[in-house]
Amino acid sequence: MSLTNQLALPAILVGALAASAVPVSAVANNATTEQTIGFDIKPGTLEDVLNGFGVQAGIVLVFSPELTKGLESSGLTGQYNVQQALQELLQGTDIVPAIEGNTITLDRAEDDAVMVFDPMIVITGSIDDSAYGPVDGYIAKRSGTGTKTDAALIETPQSVSVISRDQMNRLNLETPSQALRYTSGVVAELFGNDPRFDWVSIRGFATDEYLDGMALPKGNYSWPRHELYGVERAEVLKGPASVLYGSSSSGGLYNFVSKRPSKENQGEVRLQTGDPDRIQISGDVTGQVPGTETFQYRLTGLWRDADTLVDHVENDRTYLQPSFSWTPSDKTTFTVLGYHTEDDSKSLQFLPAEGVLKGNINGKLDRSTFTGEPDYDKFEREQKGIGYLLEHEFAGGWTLNHKLRKSEVDVELKGIRPSFGWVDANFDGQPDDYRTHNRVVFLFEDNAEALTSDTNIAQTFNIAGMDHSVLLGFDYRKMNTESKLHYALTTPLDLYDPTYGLVTQQDPPLFSSNEQELKQQGFYLQDQIKWDQTTFLLSVRSDRSTIDNDSEAVFPPSSSSESVKDDKISYRAGLLHNFDNGFAPYLSYATSFEPNLGVDEDGKSFDPTLGKQLEFGVKYQSPDNRQLVTLSFFKLVQSDVVMSSLTPGAPKEQVGEITSKGVELEVKAKLLDNLNLISALTYTDAEISKDTNRQVEGNQVASVPERQASVWLDYQFADTALQGFGLGSGIRYVGDHYGDKENDIRVPSYTLVDFLAYYDFSHLGSYYEGFQVSTNVSNVTDKEFVAHCDDAGSCYWGEGRVITAAIDYRW
């Protein structure tokens, strides 16, 4: 039964309670009760105070009214975990708690017989007791990405953003890029709504995607795009994370937490349509395997046949994610997770600046302009993975977490795109007509495979009045990539009046090939120390990595073979203090280490990229857990940076140093029971502090806007004739940015508006329970804007208005 249905039940329960109560100290072993919570409970009868405690703590509290009859309480204000709060509330009474799962029962300590209470009070609150499970609403309280442990966000001295499943559903966020639209510190849709890839940067630096804490494979063009429908939550850790994850970007990492099997039988089916044309069917079912008590299953899938706003470019996808869990006891869980995804689309459109960013005598190029050949262009990707998660708690209190995954991304990308400027038949340096453009034909055959594993053990103990949560682990990553590029000149195209079919449908000759293998292994140690209301976070890691690279070029003919080995130490130190009023100032310092897969234009492997960051800020979690605010200030320095990685087809190069400084503010709040707020402000000053070309030092880093802002509000009508209806709207602002490191190409700022309307049919009666219809519109005004232009002379339109209508049934 879902929590929503539980809340709908009468708060009366008739039953028998065993009087063998668990001591208060044992309560702290439960994950929910370890979390520090901000309480604000007014004085009153003990029954009323316990009622407020159950709701604010997010637990199920069971007791007889006879137990508290005639007792008063002075209430409770401040930051406590459940153990501490119960000690305060029950001090001076003979009442003790007994815990079982997420339920706490209250009884008298001296009773030896079984007592029957009639009636019995049951108090329930919203439960968010796992960093790896669903979030009730938009506001997550816990995360495992920042520490590899089930930690409270208000106690983590580093900035972490969590996008919940509820937020993805309500705002119709369908891709990893879209999921970050209302998140601070990130740039996600740099090339508009690219149906192929996610172009995500954090604090000015490109980052990679992780799944359940392990890196997804990624090659030159064999980039993954994980299906967001199979995700329970998406989490952004901002700043260096190498101390826990090994080789990773200094800017941070983007981690997806998979949907996992549940003991509760539940499911949903969703049908979508919209403009541009689309039909999408998705479904998700989970529960106990019939006839068993220890086996659970989950099956999540999606099928889409869709167009995009660009002529001849599809956005088709088939996705299946099965999972299976075995829980022989409350101490052990073994889960098998698999996924298989197939995509069918075409290349991103490369348009000349004249007609997009700059004026053209022929007018603007339409956003629907297709520059390739409909019968030749193709983008096909297959993604697959299989792995498992093992969790076991030993008798001595040690906890084992072990996971492993084998995954692969295979891409065939072929197409024709504008290149080498407008046609100049007489070679006088002036285009003939500014409408006919030269083109090239290309074919990328790319494959990336990865074997990843992570094993750690954890224990909590007390030394000299301080609680230590120690994590000791080892992880391993092996990644192989193969890439072949076929490339040639082909016939020009009139971009204002295209005539297709004039190109011979033959693949171009091989231009270059590359094979690379990365092996990385690391040992890490972390200690989360709690002394009263102060948290110290100390982490250290030792990495060893090897990159073997073999490359060949046909024109000009060349070949190279190189092996690069690196040993690095990464570390992090953090300090945070939780005040009674909910504020938590923090300070942290962290380093990063990132071997670079890929070669420069001479076929040489890159040196590792190093980073270091100082971050300080303050977090706020309201006593009722209805507001979570993070304000952070950071300075991040990254050396040996690989540039131009965000520009498709451009050669990469390694420059000296980039310094990124900024301020980020992120607010998630439940302003009223039926009014939600999400807001983000970002200021990022990312500049080239050292470069092989001294003339660009001090310039802004390409593709990084200085200013971004967003706000989202949604409201559900209640107790009126409009009960069941909901409305929402958001505004997203992206400031101007440069498209090249010389800062000659400036892309203007833009502001977009999103809209939501929905109706929950359950308000019409139980027969309609679980049905909902909704409409989401992004870029409501159909604003025409330039998403990005690069130093290769290509520009990319931002996405126009997209309308999606859906009907859902959940049970």
Describe this structure in words.
- With 811 residues, the chain is mainly β.
- Helix content is 6%, strand content 54%.
- It contains seven helices and 47 strands.
- The strands form ten sheets. It has a 22-stranded antiparallel barrel.
- β7 and β8 (103-108) form a beta hairpin.
- The protein starts with a helix and ends with a strand.
- Mean pLDDT is 88; it is low at 1-32, 111-128 and 645-649.
Structural class by helix and strand composition: mainly beta
* Main beta sheet strand tally, sense and closure: 22 strands, antiparallel, barrel
Average pLDDT, rounded to a whole number, is 88
Poorly predicted runs are 1-32, 111-128, 645-649
Total count of helical runs of at least 4 residues: 7
Total E-strand runs: 47
Please give the share of residues in helix: under 10%
Q: What is the general shape? A: globular
N-C termini distance: 9 Å
Spatial extent as radius of gyration: 28 Å
The oligomerization state is single chain
Estimate what percentage of residues fall within beta strands. over 45%
Subcellular location: Cell outer membrane
Signal peptide: 1-21
Keywords: Cell outer membrane, Ion transport, Iron, Iron transport, Membrane, Receptor, Signal, TonB box, Transmembrane, Transmembrane beta strand, Transport
Membrane topology: Multi-pass membrane protein
Layout: helices, strands, pairs:
Blueprint: H1 3-8, E1 15-17, H2 31-34, E2 37-41, E3 44-45, H3 46-57, E4 60-63, H4 65-68, E5 72-73, E6 76-80, H5 82-90, E7 95-100, E8 103-108, E9 115-117, E10 121-123, E11 142-143, E12 151-152, E13 160-164, H6 165-171, E14 186-187, E15 201-202, E16 205-206, E17 209-211, E18 214-215, E19 231-238, H7 242-245, E20 252-258, E21 266-275, E22 278-288, E23 295-306, E24 315-329, E25 332-345, E26 351-352, E27 378-393, E28 399-422, E29 436-463, E30 466-494, E31 510-531, E32 534-553, E33 558-577, E34 583-594, E35 609-621, E36 627-643, E37 653-672, E38 675-690, E39 707-716, E40 725-734, E41 737-738, E42 746-747, E43 750-760, E44 771-778, E45 786-789, E46 794-797, E47 802-810
Parallel strand pairs: 4-8, 17-20
Antiparallel strand pairs: 1-9, 2-6, 3-5, 4-10, 7-8, 11-12, 13-19, 14-15, 15-16, 17-18, 19-20, 21-22, 21-47, 22-23, 23-24, 24-25, 25-27, 26-46, 27-28, 28-29, 29-30, 30-31, 31-32, 32-33, 33-34, 34-35, 35-36, 36-37, 37-38, 38-39, 39-40, 40-43, 41-42, 43-44, 44-47, 45-46
